[in-house]
């Protein structure tokens, strides 16, 4: 359990393992950020794969941790941890390949939307249920996966979209059977790892440099509304509703 790392040649495989659903507590977001950043700093690493164990890739922030914590430390921590983890994927000095299975929700979209390549299994679904949780955020990242009006529709309705649908939009590169997911991600990773790492690192920096979307500022802007909704009490009500099963 935890954020685990394993080297496969020049590929660093970062695995998220927080049963039962990979809803990450505050510390795990920071640990994930550290693992991805450290991997990029290692000159022997040419590419990173981000994957998960268990029922789904990611269920977002640990809502229970926020609700059982007094004050706002866990809420602020979750927001700062997500900012750090999403940013680490984007800023990683080498390409990050997300290998997604099962559900990918909320914070999971933040990770995947900032990744360089997305491979998904046939069972994968993606969604941002923030409006039902009294939070805002990850629209920045969902907007990287689908066109604007679909992003808005998904955001306002909290509906999910399948890996196959994302493939039609070009954001998911390949959709494969669940049993083939790791190998499919490794196949792309090895292809990248074969190239001159000096060129690949320069290419990552160049692609970030010409990106029209300022992902860090954009997400930080969204987070401001999460804090407003918390001050209004709307967020607390939404989280209690989720935990009480309504
Ligand atoms: C910027 C980022 C923002 C965010 O990330 S906001 C949070 C966004 N995430 C969500 O809203 C996810 C909500 N969860 C779900 O939709 C479902 O769950 C799943 C699809 C992930 C899994 O569904 P199923 O397989 O039917 O399992 P289950 O019985 O619903 O959940 C198993 C246990 O996991 C707990 N759990 C699920 N999600 C979270 C979470 N995000 N934070 C804390 N706990 C969570 C449940 O409550 C339950 O627990 P118990 O076994 O004690 O009843």
TrEMBL record:
It comes from the Bacteria. GO terms for molecular function: enoyl-CoA hydratase activity; isomerase activity. The keyword ATP-binding does not apply. Keywords: Lyase. Its EC number is 4.2.1.17. InterPro entries: ClpP/crotonase-like_dom_sf, Ech1-like, Enoyl-CoA_hydra/iso. It is an enzyme of class 4 (lyase). CDD domains: crotonase-like. It holds the Pfam family ECH_1. Gene3D superfamilies: 2-enoyl-CoA Hydratase, Chain A, domain 1. The keyword Acetylation does not apply. Belongs to the enoyl-CoA hydratase/isomerase family. This is Enoyl-CoA hydratase. It comes from Amycolatopsis mediterranei (strain S699) (Nocardia mediterranei). The lineage of its organism: Bacteria, Bacillati, Actinomycetota, Actinomycetes, Pseudonocardiales.
């Amino acid at each position: 359990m935890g954020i685990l790392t394993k080297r496969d040649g020049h590929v660093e495989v970062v695995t998220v393992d927080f049963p039962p659903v990979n809803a990450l507590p505050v510390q795990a977001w920071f640990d994930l950020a550290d693992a991805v950043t450290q991997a990029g700093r290692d000159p022997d690493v040419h590419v990173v794969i981000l994957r998960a164990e268990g029922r789904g890739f990611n269920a977002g922030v640990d809502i229970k941790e926020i609700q059982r914590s007094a004050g706002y430390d866990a809420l602020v921590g979750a927001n700062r941890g997500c900012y750090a983890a999403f940013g680490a994927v984007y800023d990683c000095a080498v390409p990050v390949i997300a290998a997604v299975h099962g559900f990918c929700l909320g914070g999971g979209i933040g990770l995947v939307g900032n990744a360089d390549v997305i491979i998904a299994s046939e069972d994968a679904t993606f969604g941002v249920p923030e409006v039902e949780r009294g939070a805002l955020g990850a629209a920045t990242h969902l907007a990287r996966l689908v066109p604007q009006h679909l992003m808005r529709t998904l955001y306002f309705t909290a509906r999910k979209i399948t890996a196959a649908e994302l493939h039609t939009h070009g954001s998911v590169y390949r959709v494969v059977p669940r049993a083939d997911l790791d190998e499919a991600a490794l196949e792309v990773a090895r292809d990248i790892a074969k190239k001159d790492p000096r060129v690949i690192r320069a290419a990552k920096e160049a692609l970030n440099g010409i990106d029209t979307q300022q992902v860090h500022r954009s997400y930080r802007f969204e987070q401001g509304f999460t804090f407003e909704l918390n001050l209004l009490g709307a967020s607390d009500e939404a989280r209690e509703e989720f935990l009480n099963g309504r």
